[in-house]
């Protein structure tokens, strides 16, 4: 049976120290519930003595039902010259009434002497007193040995004394922290192998990513004997972040044969990553290993040709094992294999002789030379393929549009659009206002089409992006506009390119609406 690795999630505490990451107490409770459903062993809720939000989280968590995961409160050892029972941070820890508490103490002599300004002996007493007091209060205690690897490299004997102070006081787990994120995997391996014979309790690893090695150091620590890995979902955290538990789970379970969560839970790994990303209001990173949108995306024609024969040729794991899916992209780098794969995916039939595929490839290369980017706009790609094949029947035809912007002395600006379209034998002229010219044009188009296609109201525009293709021509440069739209069934992206931003916006907008209309009611 594979060895079980304990997962300790600190997204709600260490993760929120990352730039642009902000979670309300209610957000944290929702994430904690998701983590428990997923099978995470420990969920660190925050530092209750540091701010009202974390204290409120523990109040909410106390009223919720956490059965399998252990909600954990975090704080520091007692302050110098104060008894544990009189220390406000220790009092706040106990007030949470959670069973498991995590405290950190200094394992680097530099920090004890220069940062805390205490003697090395006093630092050991702070660790021992705090843990002994919390154990006397009936709590399980995890000791985070802060800066342990730097401390061990500088003064190994003293770093070990800090662990012994915790162990002799009854600590349940010691966690070795690479707090500055500067250790190398071979150093982590060597130091943990040195430490393990001196420690009779569970050993954990807490790695930061300042050298891009938090994941590598976490895996190396497990290989060397560590039984707990601390990290955050998506690697959120201070500076360059923490070890990403998403990649930790994927590698430990699928590559190294350890058990972290159930295989069924692992199939929801992508969902977990996106859920936390949404609540943290941090855009998903498409290149994130295992769960990113691009993790199993194939663009080169040679690659696509190979995966149609055997996906293992260019995929290190089956995407569905982590809840992801294979994607084939189409661009000027594509060959006929890409087009044939995407056409099957879209339900479009091509001729068997390869002539249709070649026509589509040539048209894509021509348009991408002008600035289009179809790997990022699959809605426009589907319309293009159907147009090249003569399988597209326009649901409406633009006759003309006019957009005007008016700005008054008070600084207020308003946009108006009029549009004339033809649907079958009928013509419709409509006007509308909007928050900006593109919104006004969108409103006018929808107003004109509603009479013919009432279900147009089911779609909504959710994102609008403008990129300058070549800045050398300054304000006369070509721009690329991408519009992301959605309805109850799907999300799709469309594209437009022009030196006129309104024209480029119209192209993307028209494609977006046409894509929705050809899908039917």
From TrEMBL:
Pathway: Amino-acid biosynthesis; L-isoleucine biosynthesis; 2-oxobutanoate from pyruvate: step 1/3. SUPFAM superfamilies: 2-isopropylmalate synthase LeuA, allosteric (dimerisation) domain, Aldolase. It catalyses: pyruvate + acetyl-CoA + H2O = (3R)-citramalate + CoA + H(+). Keywords: Acyltransferase, Amino-acid biosynthesis, Branched-chain amino acid biosynthesis, Isoleucine biosynthesis, Transferase. Pfam families: HCS_D2 (PF22617), HMGL-like (PF00682), LeuA_dimer (PF08502). Its EC number is 2.3.3.21. InterPro entries: 2-isopropylmalate_synth_dimer, AIPM/Hcit_synth_CS, Aldolase_TIM, Citramal_synthase, LeuA/HCS_post-cat, LeuA_allosteric_dom_sf, PYR_CT. One of its GO terms (molecular function) is 2-isopropylmalate synthase activity. The keyword Secreted does not apply. GO terms for biological process: isoleucine biosynthetic process; L-leucine biosynthetic process. Residues 5-267 form the Pyruvate carboxyltransferase domain. Belongs to the alpha-IPM synthase/homocitrate synthase family. PANTHER family: (R)-CITRAMALATE SYNTHASE, ALPHA-IPM SYNTHASE/HOMOCITRATE SYNTHASE. This is Citramalate synthase.
């Amino acid at each position: 049976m594979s060895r079980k690795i304990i997962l300790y999630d600190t997204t709600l505490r260490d993760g929120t120290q990352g730039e642009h990451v902000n979670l309300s107490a209610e957000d944290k409770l929702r994430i904690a519930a998701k983590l428990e459903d997923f099978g995470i062993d420990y969920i660190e809720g925050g530092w209750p003595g540091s701010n009202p939000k974390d204290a409120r989280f523990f109040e909410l968590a106390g009223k919720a039902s956490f059965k399998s995961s252990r909600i954990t409160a975090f704080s520091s050892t007692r302050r110098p010259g104060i008894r544990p029972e009189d220390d406000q941070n220790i009092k706040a820890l106990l007030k949470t009434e959670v069973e498991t508490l995590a405290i950190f103490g200094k394992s680097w002599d530099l920090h004890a002497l220069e940062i805390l300004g205490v003697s090395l002996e006093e630092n050991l007493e702070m660790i021992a007193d705090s843990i002994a007091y919390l154990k006397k209060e009936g709590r399980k205690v995890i000791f985070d040995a802060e800066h342990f690897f730097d401390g061990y490299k500088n003064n190994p004997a003293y770093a070990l004394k800090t662990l012994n102070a915790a162990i002799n006081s009854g600590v349940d787990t010691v966690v070795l922290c690479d707090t500055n994120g500067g250790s190398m995997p071979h150093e982590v391996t060597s130091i943990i192998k040195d430490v393990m014979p001196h420690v009779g309790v569970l050993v954990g690893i807490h790695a930061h990513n300042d050298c891009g090695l938090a994941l590598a150091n976490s895996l190396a620590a497990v290989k060397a004997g560590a039984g707990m890995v601390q990290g955050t979902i998506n690697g959120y955290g201070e500076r360059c972040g923490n070890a990403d538990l998403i990649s930790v789970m994927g590698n430990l379970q699928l590559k190294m044969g350890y058990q972290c969560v159930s295989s069924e839970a692992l199939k929801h790994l992508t969902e977990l990553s996106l859920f936390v990303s949404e609540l943290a209001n941090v855009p998903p990173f498409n290149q994130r290993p295992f769960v990113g949108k691009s993790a199993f995306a194939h663009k080169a024609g040679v690659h696509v040709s190979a995966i149609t024969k055997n996906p293992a040729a260019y995929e290190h794991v089956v995407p569905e094992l982590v809840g992801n899916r294979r994607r084939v992209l189409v661009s000027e780098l594509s060959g006929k294999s890409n087009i044939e794969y995407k056409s099957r995916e879209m339900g479009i039939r091509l001729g068997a002789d390869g002539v249709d595929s070649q026509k589509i490839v040539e048209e894509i290369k021509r348009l991408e030379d002008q600035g289009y980017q179809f790997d990022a706009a699959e809605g426009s790609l589907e319309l293009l393929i159907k147009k090249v094949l003569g399988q597209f029947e326009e649901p409406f035809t633009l006759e003309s549009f006019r957009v005007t912007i008016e700005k008054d002395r008070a600084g207020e600006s308003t946009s108006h659009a009029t549009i004339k379209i033809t649907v079958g034998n009928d013509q419709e002229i409509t006007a509308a206002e909007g928050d900006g010219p593109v919104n006004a044009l969108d409103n006018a188009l929808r107003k004109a089409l509603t009479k013919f296609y009432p279900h147009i109201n089911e779609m909504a525009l959710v994102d609008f992006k403008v990129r300058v293709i070549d800045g050398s021509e300054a304000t006369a440069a070509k721009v690329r506009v991408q519009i992301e739209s959605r309805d109850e069934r799907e999300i799709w992206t469309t594209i437009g390119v022009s030196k006129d931003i309104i024209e480029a916006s119209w192209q993307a907008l028209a494609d977006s609406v046409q894509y929705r209309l050809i899908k039917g009611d």
